[in-house]
């Protein structure tokens, strides 16, 4: 499926001194990202946020159609741009990404709004609430009937924090959502969507968005979608079933259960590698719908912490296994884990994912401290062998691979606090060979 890059993190314009210029900054990175092997970008919310208390990341959406053209909600007087830039700069970014064969996904906030222009009485509750939205774009205006509770029954409780929740059963709201998605694809140029907080609305909404026909420049666009269903494996299964049953264009979900397991691998001493062979994660149970990841913008403290130690073990795992892996900008650039040109960084693993990681996954060996698997290969991807070591010393293990009479070259590797140069290995007539993995590290072999 390729490799997705989450092309932002929380407060990235401020952290990287690119306020109002993130779209341009990202456009400048596109050639190197394409060379590395990335195939798609997930962008932050493009619409104008409420900007309450300062400029925002856009998850407090106010005007879905203001991509940086109007001065409404400006923090700086007269500033029309979002924190990321102008609509024109966004569209240049998308066009340039397409020129580099990169798809671009929009972050859609369909559950809640913020920054209403006026409070108005809700006759159902008998109280006033900030629900009148008259955005300067003049498109998708909202009033109290567009939010819960409304005259249209909806199971949603009514607010997300302090932000009113949209009433998705109101035809006006549903039409607004459908039209907005169509506009983003056909006019702005997006190729798909990341759906924020899908637990806040019915799966039928996502299914309706994906059942539509989208055309751009006279050609049909098959949009991709992935939901943020922050929950356990069973809940995500139910959500995916509610969206994908009878659907021709299936939607994926982020593999939160796997992410928490990978955090234990990296941050919890004594983690047994046997757990990497267990089910209960999307990557194992429904790999064609799993979007695997290591960290994202929501892991920033308050009990939802980033992975701190040996994060490359997690990236080596997701970029060699099945699923649609997503790399986090903050890890790649801010934390310096890309390591361009080196065998020990994310860039090399992305390249290997695209060149080698095809076919089924076969686990070759697993115990508490050593894990090995192979990808059997498919099409132009010849397959690979991956070994992971969670012990304090190097481990040599005899394995029977599916690659008889083959020289397997080391393609990527990383050892904890050590310089390590693995030699090539040669398999015998039955595919047997000995592979050594460095202490608290990994090695990837391929033909």
What is the count of structural domains? Answer: 2
Radius of gyration over alpha carbons?
Answer: 23 Å
Structural class: alpha/beta
Q: Per CATH, which architecture of the largest domain?
A: Alpha-Beta Barrel
Classify the fold: give the CATH topology of the largest domain: TIM Barrel
Average pLDDT over all residues = 96
**Total helical segments:** 11
CATH level-1 class of the largest domain: Alpha Beta
Folded structure, characterized:
By secondary structure, the chain is α/β, with parallel strands linked by helices. The chain has two domains: 4-355, TIM Barrel; 361-446, Immunoglobulin-like. Helix content is 25%, strand content 23%. It contains eleven helices and 24 strands. The protein has helices spanning 12-15, 22-36, 87-99, 171-188, 203-211, 233-244, 256-267, 282-285, 311-318, 329-334, 346-355, and strands at 4-6, 40-42, 48-49, 61-63, 103-108, 118-122, 127-132, 159-160, 163-164, 192-195, 214-216, 219-221, 224-227, 252-254, 290-293, 324-328, 361-366, 370-375, 384-389, 395-400, 407-414, 425-426, 432-437, 441-446. The chain has an eight-stranded parallel barrel with strand order 1-2-5-10-13-14-15-16. A six-stranded antiparallel sheet has the order 17-18-19-24-21-22. Strand 13, helix 6 and strand 14 (252-254) form a beta-alpha-beta unit. The longest helix is centred in the middle third of the chain and has 18 residues, at 171-188. The chain is elongated, with a radius of gyration of 23 Å.
